[in-house]
Design brief:
Length: about 325
């Protein structure tokens, strides 16, 4: 019987997007730089690099654990990207939840910042103009189960003071943007470098936290911050000043110094970066603040990777 050994590197098309990504993001070098403790997850001890790459692919293609299992089993580009040979046994669906737990939110955050550090070394971040904003992440569409439980205790109205007693997700809260846009879950805050379109920082808070409170987690050092009316308030202005930033926030109509022509210009400059949120999930994949923060990091890594591919096509970058 003759056994044929296939070289997946030759089988995967050079124009395959995973080959392009692999040529831009040096996974091995980045993992060495950030000093993540090695994690052996799975019966065969797949290792940290395989785990990080699997999580990256799962979010890049928006796959469930079972969908990821099948793609990794049958897709040769997935096998090649994650360092498996064509005959290697690949992980089952239970591996991915254990992998997320073993690697942890903090280490995923380190990997996100390591990619950004390499991007800064390549002069992709200019650090002059920044866009800041927040978006909702729904934990669930309705809270009827929680309401039914609360009625048994003769509590007619659920609010942020009593929801923890009835909700499975103890960190989620009720939030509101504007006057009528209510949801239950979390709020994603992020800042974007306006020269490259890359996400600089991302942080998740319970939905009841204001944009001003979230700004302290994502505010850059130096430059000008473009933002909506939520960032013109005193607390946000103090945070900007403490980081050496100039405010590009739109003023409310009743505020002294309101200049409609200036605010119209600020809005036009800011509008293209509002599309960042359209690429990010509006629902939680997991329960709890830390796990939702991991989700936000992974989504930001994917967003920045796609943006780096675009910058490479424009000959602005070769590899990190």
């Amino acid at each position: 019987m003759t056994f044929i050994q296939y070289d997946l590197n030759e089988l995967v098309d050079p124009k395959n997007e995973l080959k392009i990504i692999s040529g831009i993001i040096p996974f091995v070098d980045l993992l060495k730089e950030i000093e993540i403790k090695e994690s052996k997850v799975g019966r065969n001890g797949y290792g940290l690099e395989v785990g990080i790459k699997c999580l990256f692919l799962q979010f890049y293609y928006d796959l469930s654990d079972r969908e990821m299992e099948n793609r990794l089993k049958y897709d040769i580009s997935f096998k090649w990207f994650c360092n498996f040979s064509i005959s290697d046994a690949t992980p089952d669906y239970s591996y991915f939840s254990r992998c997320r737990k073993a690697i942890g939110t903090q280490n995923i955050g380190k990997f996100f910042h390591a990619i950004n550090k390499r991007s800064k070394d390549k002069k992709l971040f200019h650090g002059v103009f920044h866009f800041a904003d927040s978006s909702k992440i729904k934990a669930k569409e309705s809270t009827w189960t929680e309401r039914d439980k609360s009625l048994l205790d003769h509590i007619e109205n659920l609010n942020n003071n009593n929801i923890n007693k009835y909700s499975v997700d103890k960190d989620a809260k009720f939030g509101c943007k504007g006057k009528n846009d209510f949801w239950f879950g979390y709020k994603r805050h992020h800042s974007v470098d306006m020269s490259s379109g890359l996400i600089e920082k991302v942080a998740v808070t319970p939905a009841n936290k204001t944009d001003q409170e979230g700004l302290k987690h994502i505010c850059p050092i130096g430059g000008m911050i473009f933002g909506d009316k939520a960032y013109c308030l005193k607390r946000a202005q103090i945070i900007m000043q403490s980081r050496g930033c100039h405010s590009g926030a739109i003023l409310k109509n009743n505020m002294q110094g309101k200049n409609k022509y200036k605010d119209n210009w600020l809005t036009k400059v800011r509008i293209p970066f509002e599309n960042t949120f359209s690429k990010l999930s509006k629902k939680t994949r997991y329960r709890g603040l830390m796990k939702t923060q991991m989700q936000a990091f992974l989504e930001a890594i994917v967003f920045n990777t796609k943006r780096l591919v675009v910058l490479r096509s424009q000959n602005m970058i070769d590899f990190l």
